[in-house]
Design a protein that fits this description.
The complex is a heterotrimer of chains A (about 260), B (about 260) and C (about 250).
Chain A lengths: L1 H7 L3 E10 L3 E11 L4 E5 L6 H9 L6 E6 L2 E2 L7 E4 L11 H5 L1 H5 L4 H14 L15 H14 L4 E5 L7 H17 L3 E6 L2 H7 L2 E5 L6 E6 L15 H15 L4
Parallel strand pairs in A: 3-8, 3-9, 6-7, 7-8
Antiparallel strand pairs in A: 1-2, 1-4, 4-5, 9-10
Helix pairs in contact in A: 5-6, 8-9
Chain B lengths: L8 H27 L9 H13 L2 H33 L1 H16 L6 H8 L3 H25 L3 H9 L4 H38 L4 H11 L3 H29 L1 H6 L1
Chain C lengths: L1 E2 L2 E2 L3 H17 L8 H12 L2 H34 L1 H16 L6 H8 L3 H25 L3 H9 L4 H12 L1 H26 L3 H11 L3 H28 L1 H5 L2
Antiparallel strand pairs in C: 1-2
Helix pairs in contact in C: 2-11, 3-4, 3-6, 3-9, 3-10, 4-6, 5-6, 6-9, 9-10, 9-11, 10-11
The chains are: A alpha/beta (about 260), B mainly alpha (about 260), C mainly alpha (about 250).
The structure holds adenosine-5'-diphosphate and magnesium ion.
The site of adenosine-5'-diphosphate has 12 residues of chain A, from strand 2 and helix 2.
Amino acid sequence: MQANTIQNRPIIEVKELSKTYPGRVEALRNVNLSIPRGQLTTLLGPSGCGKTTLLKIIAGLLNKTEGNVFINGQPVNGPGPERAFVFQDFALLPWCTVLRNVAFGLELRGVPGKQRNEIAMKYIDEVGLTGFEKAYPYELSGGMRQRVGLARALAVDAEILLMDEPFASVDEQTRRKFQEDLLNLLKIEKKTVVFVTHSIEEAVYVSDQVALLGPRPGRIMRVINTRLDHAENVEDIRRDQRYLNLVEDLWQILRQYLI
Amino acid sequence: MSKYKPKTKTGLFKRIAWRVLSLVLVFGLWEFAGRKPISIIFPTFTSTMVALMNLLIDGTLLSAYAVTLVPLAIGVALVGFLGIVFGILMGLYRSFEWLTLPVFIIVQSAPMAALIPLITFLYGIGLGAKVLAVVLMAAPVIVLNSYRGIRNANPTLIQMGRSFLASRTQEIFKIILPDASGMIFAGLRLGVAAGFIGVILAELLITPTGIGDLITYYRALALYPQMFASIFSIVLFASVVVSALQRLEGILFRRQQCTS
Amino acid sequence: MIIFGRRIPMIFALLIWLLVWEAIGRAELLFLIPPFADVVRAMFKLLATGKFYQAVSVSFIAFSTGMMISISIGIPLGILMGRVRFIDELLGMWVNVFVSAPLTAIVPALMVLTGFGQTTVIVTVILFSVWIITLDTRAGVRNINPSLLEMGRSFGANKLQLYTKVIFKAALPEILAGLRLGLIRGVRGVIVGQLLIAIIGLGELFELYSRSFLMDRFWALVIMIFLFAYMISEAVNHLEKRIEFWASTR
Ligand SMILES: Nc1ncnc2c1ncn2[C@@H]1O[C@H](COP(=O)(O)OP(=O)(O)O)[C@@H](O)[C@H]1O
Ligand SMILES: [Mg+2]
């Protein structure tokens, strides 16, 4: 019974969260959001509405002005081992090989060299970069760099992945491939993912639920269940009528908030 | 960098051809100006080169360089180590930055050469004076480059480190310092160039030894080809050293330059 | 720095250093460093002497003449190097050599060629400043987005318009950066030139004060020159900030 209640409780709870940047830029106002365990939740909204701000406060990288964020019932005071971040601009160490970049989180935790390289190799494999472990970031394309960023986040074995527009700087074809690979990967790795995007298609394609953020100051307008049972084949989603309807529904909601 | 990077053998050949043409053009003009002559004092390029060969063969130049390069090396090593440490501390500690940055901001645009006359009072006219001149000229750029390298370390990388729970020590040694190293090295290169200016100024103004003395000496004797040969040699030598450092920088920090 | 929750401006750090200076001077640790109060007094005394004004005006004329020539050579040359390949190939190497060469060594040669006077100082100023202006201008021209040039051409700009209305303006951020560095180097050129010649302008005063151990005046002069260089650099910096917005969206 006890275990069951923990399982049903949202893993991340955001309560009455506000953020005002110095210079009185009000980025978030009174945000409330529950993020269920083991699902992929997308924060969707126009550029500048505060998605990154919200995600970085959840990550413990930014201080909030008011309100609280709870992870597993504990208030957030900074970064923690149960959360791993995937950065929009990759944030790879340019002077380190792919292998060392992927192992970087483990290196910081003091995992011995041989062991962390083994773990890193496993994830390099999982994200499809086998053979590139000796390469340096500058030798990789944008999409491959983000795969390194993803592998690094997976390698530290966090329950929660926080992904800030991970595919924004990648071209359309690569992005689609990456989205499919992400869904396949999440079938193996049971993670809770908070995913930020400004693309409606991407949001519907990858997520179980979508939280719509309105323009500044960012508020949650609506949370919509977008779960399509894509257990069998991720390649069929884009043809699914429910997918197409959801994209259109979200657009109809979002366009009301545009000028 | 250049749009015309050599990618093929012919590209390389063309590049060398341009180099040669450029040398021929300038030295040709020099020869022409010397033969015309624009001034009875101005030696031709060929007579300068002949003088340079003679100075090289009889060892004059070599012994002059030995005297000039020792204080340069000592000064650069000294200010290289202390200045980099100082700049790094400035970048890492806000209160230290607050105390020292204003001084360096003024000093970076100031003509430090104005202080050279004071050096005689401190160290007389020996090795110490030259070392101090090198330190004086090279310190501002070395300190400020190290400081800026640290302060401008990529904030996303620092955030990445924090999100993966880096301690402050790990953040400094695994992220900030490697990220700043390119800029620190560039400061060292600029410091070497400034050090050359310092040592020559000291030799011309206060300590008549080394290559600076050679210039003054041949001027006094009105041996202008020799004088121009000495000047030519030091300008050439300094450019070779500085561009070698630049090459090295390109090789060492290639990875950083390509991704950031 | 923040003390008791208040932000203390950095300029106060300079005050602390001046106090340290005063203390060292009072303690007579080094005869080279007289109390700062004496230096300030000497500054006022200097400002009342004709010799000082003469030195300043000679130096300023050399500086401004040299800079004017330097700018009118450096910027067009830089633009040409950025646009015309063979000029770039022919001169690029030399500009790069001279931008970091110990040009101090060349001043004695100038002295025998152009004499122990103002001309040599002016040439020194040019020699010190022109290369960095050229190099930065060239970099600015090379950084121009090619589609901006195509835009100019497709809307029918002629060559002159293209150079003055598109290329020069688009390269302005780098040109100003080069100008700032050039001015700083120009001040250095005046000082180095006059120190080596030792019989004109500020160089003569430096020589005089250090020979006769008038340290308060020496420092008064140093401080005024340093402040002059700083103010010039800040003035250009201010201009650079004003057009910074277009550097990012070119
Ligand atoms: N460090 C900061 N200082 C001041 N304002 C900021 C800062 N970072 C972001 N902002 C502002 O806060 C708002 C939300 O930014 P952000 O969270 O990055 O939006 P999004 O990721 O949705 O595009 C924007 O209007 C932005 O200009
Ligand atoms: Mg964002």
